[in-house]
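Lab notebook, bench 4. The sequencing result for the construct came back, and we need a structural model before the next group meeting so we can plan mutations. Quick request posted to the team channel:

Model the 3D structure of this chain.
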Amino acid sequence: MSTPTDKKNAGRSGAKARQGEQAVFSWAAIFSVRTQFILLLLLILLATGVSVVYTTFKNRYLLNELQQLKNQRNELQVQWGQLLIEQSTFSLEARVERKAIDELQMKVPEFAEIVMVRYD
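Done. Here's the predicted structure in token form:
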């Protein structure tokens, strides 16, 4: 069983422990304005560091996407040029044939009218 002196000693040791903790906190100055200001500055520094990393990542990602879009644009321009050449080729043959028929009254000969000339 515990005696009244044990209870007093336990109460004193608890109070001493609390005083010791308070002494440690006051010695470490954890709750001082200066320490809180330093912690705030550290948090701001951490946040700006993370934002720099994020913006660098986003910049590289968007630059890669821009390069892919430029490559796609170049491929489409090449394809467009090829289609324009093809269109002009088809229209040129039709134009020549139409002018030959209209202006020169030419026609495609029948098979029997075709004469093969040999060159020896």
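The CA atoms of residues 24 and 30 lie 9 Å apart.
Will bring this to the meeting.
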